[in-house]
User: Which sequence fits this backbone?
């Protein structure tokens, strides 16, 4: 009887615990609002199971109904275990597990209701049994004395069993508390791992997006760098071709310049020799002309001396005309010749020398004539008178004689001087024009050489600039290749980091699956 009361108290405590669990609010996942329709079928199945359990509990007025209820519970737990084994580990999330737990609690509530119903029936039966017991109490009182001894022994046994059961209950409660603490710890660890898993997944996603962006950027940069490298290579090949052509042109121009320089030097030497020859010929022609002029002047001087001798002989003879008239004639003819010779366009030096020599000859002739007249014993007064008379007599004849003799002498002198100076002018003009043409040719050749040298210097500067550009482009190409290798290394490092993160994520998933399996195993063991 005490055992039945103890069982009823334990059942009532379990029932109150089930009602308190039913009174707790259910945890719903906001993300699973769209799954209510899918969960209604499961709730209907649970309600059907609960109705079946209640019917079984209602029919459990005797031991046969309780046995059917135990069999049904065992079959239900078997189906739950089969469904848990059918589901893949780690495929359910926490909210689905909580929903399953809530479904289990609902089922437990229905079972509690069914058990309460059965408990009420049992209480009624207990009342009936108590009435029957009271009816039989009188009969049992008679057996009380006999059974008291047995009762004491049974009570002692009951007390011992009760103490054992209470100790076992305390141990089980302690074990339950430890299991609950471990379950809460496992749930917290599971939450932490899930949070870490979500963070790792977000981090992996961000790293993957960053890797994709950097890969696209690297591919774009690689394509741009490849295009730029191809362009630089093409420019380099073009520059090398241009450099080769420029070098060939430079060599050809250098050869042409050397050839032209040699030709110009030979031409310059030839022109120098020609100019020296022309100068020698000019000097020889000038010397011959001077000799001819001197010979002509000497011949004229000789003729004048002959004329003076004739005049002197005429003066000495009594039949000769007066000396003054002859002197006037000689002076007039000599002056006309000198003036005509001086105005004919002769060189200044020759005309001056000839005029000076003629004047000197005239002076000497006059002095000799006067000295001869004085030697014949003529007095100065007589000579003056004769001179005056001759002057008066010849004043009318002198212009006629001078005009008759001067044109002949002046014409001859003019013709000779014109012939000489025409030849001299032609020679000088030819010499001057040749020298000027040679100078102009030399200047043209020098300017052409300077232009060629300037062109060669400009081409050399262009070649140096082209070489510097080629070296700069080569350095740029090397820098681009270095950047490309660095980008490839970065891509390799990013791929390694991605592999490492994926391995960490897989390990964390395996840990979460292991914890879920442990939780499922612990729940199944507690349910069993």
Assistant:
């Amino acid at each position: 009887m005490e055992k039945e009361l103890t069982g009823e108290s334990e059942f009532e405590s379990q029932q109150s615990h089930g009602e308190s669990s039913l009174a707790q609010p259910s945890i719903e996942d906001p993300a699973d609002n769209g799954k209510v329709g899918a969960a209604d079928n499961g709730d209907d199945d649970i309600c059907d199971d609960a109705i079946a359990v209640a019917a079984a509990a209602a029919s459990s007025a005797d031991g046969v109904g309780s046995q059917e209820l135990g069999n049904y519970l065992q079959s239900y737990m078997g189906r739950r275990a089969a469904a848990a084994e059918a589901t893949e580990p780690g495929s359910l999330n926490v909210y689905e597990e909580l929903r399953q737990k809530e479904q289990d609690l609902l089922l437990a509530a229905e079972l509690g209701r069914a058990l309460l119903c059965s408990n009420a029936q049992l209480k009624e039966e207990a009342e009936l049994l108590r009435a029957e017991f009271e009816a039989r109490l009188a009969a049992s009182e008679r057996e009380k004395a006999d059974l008291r001894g047995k009762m004491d022994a049974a009570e002692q046994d009951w007390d011992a069993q009760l103490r054992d059961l209470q100790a076992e209950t305390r141990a089980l409660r302690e074990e339950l508390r430890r299991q609950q603490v471990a379950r809460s710890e496992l749930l917290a660890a599971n939450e932490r791992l899930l949070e870490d898993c979500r963070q790792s997944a977000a981090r992996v996603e961000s790293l993957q997006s960053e890797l994709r962006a950097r890969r696209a950027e690297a591919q774009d940069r690689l394509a741009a760098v490849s295009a730029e490298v191809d362009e630089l290579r093409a420019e380099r090949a073009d520059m090398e071709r241009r450099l080769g052509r420029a070098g060939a042109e430079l060599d050809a121009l250098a050869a042409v310049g050397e050839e032209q320089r040699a030709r110009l030097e030979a031409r310059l030497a030839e022109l120098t020799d020609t100019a020296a020859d022309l100068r020698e010929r000019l000097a020889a022609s000038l010397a011959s002309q001077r000799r001819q002029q001197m010979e002509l002047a000497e011949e004229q001087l000789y003729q004048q001396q002959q004329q003076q001798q004739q005049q002197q002989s005429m003066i000495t003879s009594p039949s000769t005309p007066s000396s003054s008239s002859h002197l006037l004639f000689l002076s007039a003819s000599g002056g006309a010749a000198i003036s005509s010779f001086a105005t004919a366009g002769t060189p200044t030096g020759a005309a001056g020398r000839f005029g000076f020599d003629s004047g000197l000859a005239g002076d000497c002739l006059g002095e000799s004539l006067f000295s001869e007249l004085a030697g014949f014993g003529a007095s100065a007064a007589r000579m003056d008178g004769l001179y005056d008379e001759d002057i008066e007599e010849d004043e009318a004849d002198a212009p006629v004689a001078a005009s008759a003799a001067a044109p002949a002498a002046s014409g001859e002198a003019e013709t000779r001087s014109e012939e000489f100076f025409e030849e001299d002018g032609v020679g000088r003009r030819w010499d001057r024009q040749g020298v000027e043409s040679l100078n102009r040719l030399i200047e043209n050749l020098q300017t052409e050489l300077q232009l060629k040298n300037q062109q060669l210097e400009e081409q050399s500067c262009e070649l140096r600039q082209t070489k510097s550009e080629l070296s700069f482009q080569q350095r740029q190409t090397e820098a681009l290749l270095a950047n490309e290798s660095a980008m490839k290394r970065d891509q390799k490092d990013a791929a390694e980091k991605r592999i490492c993160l994926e391995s960490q994520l897989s390990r964390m998933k395996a840990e979460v699956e292991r914890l879920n399996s442990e939780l499922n195993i612990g729940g199944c063991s507690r349910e069993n």
